[in-house]
Amino acid sequence: MSAVWMRARNELRLHWRALLSLGLIAGLGAGAAVAAVGGARRTLTVYPRFRAATHAFDDLIGTNGDSTDAAALATQFAELTKAESLPEVTGYSITDAFACTVTGPSGTTEAFPDLFVIASPDGRLGTTLNSIQILQGRRADPNKLDEVVLTTFEAQRLGAKVNSTLTLAFPKSTLSVRVVGIGIMAGAVDPSAGGYTPLALMTPAFFRAHADPSEHQGPTLAVTIRGGLAGIPKLQAEIDQLNVQIKGDLKGDLKGDLNSTISSIPQSASVRRTAVFQTVGLLLFGGLALLTVLAIFIQLLARQIFLESDEQDALRALGMSQNQLFGLALLRVAAVAIGASALAVVIAVVASPIFPIGFMHQLELSPGFRFDGLVLFGGAGVTVVLVVLAGLYPAWGASNVGARQREAENRTTKTANALAGASFPPSAVAGVRMALEPGHGRNAIPVRTTIAGTVLALTALVASLTFGASLQFLVATPSLSGWNFDLIAPGDAGAIKQIADTGVVDSYARGSIGQGGVDGRVMDIFAFGSGPFGASIVSGRRPEGTNEIALAAKTLHLLHTAVGKTVAVRLNSGDNIAPSGPTYSLRVVGVAITPQFFFSTLVGNSAVVSEEFLDAAHPSGYMVGGDSLYIRFKRGISINDGITRIRRVLPNQSNTFLLRRSASSDLTNIQRISRLPDALAGLLALVAAGTLAHTLITSVRRRRRDLAILRTLGFVRGQVRLAVVWQATTIILISLAIGLPLGAVAGRWAWHTFVGQLGYVPVSIVPMGALLLTIPAAILLANIIASIPARAAARTQPAVALRAE
Q: pLDDT, tens digit, for every residue of 411-439?
């Protein structure tokens, strides 16, 4: 081994610049990948760390009944006070939302449930419990009733900044308040997620000044729970026991109707899904950056090893064995690997302050550099392994260069021979040979890796285009994600006429929204009456009559059932918070997609029935014909304009419960990464172009002897240029023939897999226009790339080139 080490040290002194450049190239790709993995881990943990640091609430306990009566409101506060002493409750703050409309500086008007104007008499909410992280300004003075703190998204919607003025319009009065702070708090992080509460946080002084029951929406108790989110089932059991106690209390008129109104589980789950989406985006970016660099690095490494193998025959003659030559090549590769891994670690640490990305960056309470040992050391190890693996094949080939040279000398391509037999121009035959024959000795070039790299880049390019087109179609088509309508409004006969008279409604369907149990699982149940539209159906058909049901894809999976089978359904009735009453056997006729609401704690679990079924069952508390209107606005009417005009005609604007179409958490996350496939497609196009350019330039430089022989045989400069053009065209045509269909198949498969996990309608779009344009664009680009090495090849002087040989 001493001879190997001595030769290795000598080569390091001679070729250190080339090895250093290879290490820099590999380190850049590996650094991007390691930084992305570190950022992904930081993103995944940011919300749990934020919740722990701000003592975030775990559950909101509410009461049923009307809060507009003074006695009823006092009863609700009394019931919630009893809940404060439950064993599972470790912290609490009683709060209430106020019935008012809020107009911001931009003129935008928001009302419940689009904006919760809340305050707590004890002042704990937003400070010691569920503390708000102030990003701009300061906290409100608890003794001033005209100061408010807004969460970031609500400030954006209202067009408010620090020191802006908001107008609060109550049923009997108006009040101007000043925005003194803008921040973010747990439960008000992701506006498209279940459990999200859009907040305007008022002061205890404001609470005391607005004691009129008509101004209250109904109190809730925000609590932290022993054991965190995992303790919610125990808390619910204690609430059930407390309800029994309250109902048996002989002292008063307490009703015993406490229940969990908004759990933090859906918001936490949705924010985690947002983190997962960002994580996937980061990993895709890091992986493709690594793939991009590796595609170029492998060829550069192979070329460098083959260049340095020119002296292999001399070393073999001096007594070196094939294994020693192989070990010598691997030592060079190991030096590159160690340098690349060190650079990757440095890049990952330097890039760490930019993570988490997007709006989740404001949740990071410990921004700055982060040294994640697991990611850094693991990334360094993987970098070493990948670089060594990339060098194994060319190192082995270089150590066996004599046998490979004899084999290559006897190998010709049948395609070029066929073209010659068909009387194709000599330049075409020569170009095809250069594209398909790797050559030998000092003339060898990595033909197979070039074609494989170009095919890989084109496959990924087409897959990205297909995935991106399908993604854009999903984002632009709300019905594919469950929103087959624009608004849900009250559905009694009087409201129908008032809403229809506004002139903004194109069509509507009556129905109901409630909860029930399907095969023992509690879930949201949507009912649609006969009309122009119903729920979005993924497969099967819409339920009709009194014995059919459609279930969400996640529900089908959880219940281990399928279309065509029957399920047992029980409905909630009255004030019961659990399914009760008779059991109905319904046949599953379809897979449906339903929207997700801020108050829903049953993310992804839902069922769709016909209004006819509910009317026949007629559980208490349901209105015959449905109490909701699913509304589609006329073309050209925005959701905000439509809601504004509808609110004007309804009797109690501030208390009317309107649910607008909004993006679900998943759809919002998709929109945030919707341009990523296009960016990746562009990156991969550059990879393909760079790979081809590198091959052509290398080919011209390595095959000067072959080009000189062609010139000696009578090729003029124009024919030499055409030979290089034919070489580039051959490589790109082979790559297109393989890469286009593979990419379309891969893109469709990736999209169906992706959408299947989300439960949306899996409509894949293959952008045929873009694919057809890819063919001439790729050929044109290949010829443009080939023009520079073609001119260099045409200037080859036979005498000089052959004398050098």
A: 556 776 777 677 778 887 887 877 777 66
Instruction: For 368, list phi and psi in degrees, rounded to 5.
Output: 115, -165
Burial (CB count <10 Å: 0-12, 13-18, 19+), residue 170: middle
The β-bridge relationship of strands 258-263 and 101-103 is unpaired
Give the whole-angstrom CA distance, residue 313 versus residue 310. Answer: 7
Sign of the four-CA dihedral 484, 488, 494, 499: negative
Between helices 717-758 and 447-476, what is the axis angle to 10°?
Answer: 40
Residue by residue, DSSP assigns 746-764 as HHHHHHHHHHHHHTS----
CA 528 to chain centre: 31
Q: Which residues pair with 453 in a beta bridge?
A: none
3-state SS assignment for residue 95: strand
Task: Please name the amino acid found at residue 433.
Answer: R
Q: Could you identify the residue written with the tokens 């829903």?
A: 600
How far is 633 from 643, CA to CA, in rounded Å? 10
Distance CA(735)–CA(453), nearest Å, equals: 9
Per residue in 514-545, pLDDT tens? Answer: 888 898 888 888 999 888 888 888 889 999 99
Integer CA distances (angstroms), 7 to 1, 101, 735, in order: 10, 82, 40
Strands 165-169 vs 101-103: parallel, antiparallel or unpaired: antiparallel
Cross-strand bridge partners of residue 760: none
Q: What percent of the chain has pLDDT over 90?
A: 21
CA distances from 571 to 235, 515, 519 (A): 24, 7, 12
Angle of helix 768-794 relative to helix 676-702, nearest 10 degrees, comes to 20
Burial readout 283-294 (b: 16 or more C-beta within 10 A, e: otherwise): ebbbbbbbbbbb
Residue pair 179/137 in contact (Cβ under 8 Å)? The answer is yes
Read off the tokens for 133.
């992280």
Query: Which residues does residue 259 pair with via DSSP β-bridges, in sequence order?
Result: 62
Secondary structure (DSSP) of 593-638: E----TT--STT-EEEEEHHHHHHH--TTPPTT-SEEEEEEPTT--
pTM of the model: 0.68
pLDDT value at 693 more than 50: yes
> 125 is written with which tokens?
């909410």
CA distances from 40 to 4, 147, 241 (A): 42, 38, 43
**DSSP 8-class letter at 621:** T
Task: Map tokens 């079924």 to a residue.
Answer: 613
Pairing verdict, β 59-63 and 216-225? antiparallel
CB 514 within 8 A of CB 567: no
Q: Residue 484: name the closest of 646, 627, 642, 661 by CA.
A: 661
Q: Where are the alpha helices (DSSP H) in 84-151?
A: none
Q: What distance in Å separates the CA atoms of residue 682 and residue 468, rounded to the nearest whole number?
A: 12
The token pair that represents 420 in the structure block: 């010659």
Nearest to 547 by CA among 500, 462, 612: 612
User: Tell me: the pLDDT tens digits for 695-742?
Assistant: 667 666 666 666 667 777 777 777 878 888 888 888 888 889 998 999
Inter-residue contact 103 to 109 (CB < 8 Å): yes
d(CA 803, CA 805): 5
Q: Are strands 199-201 and 116-119 parallel, antiparallel or unpaired?
A: parallel
674 touches 472 (CB < 8 A) = yes
**Residue whose structure tokens are 């286009």:** 740
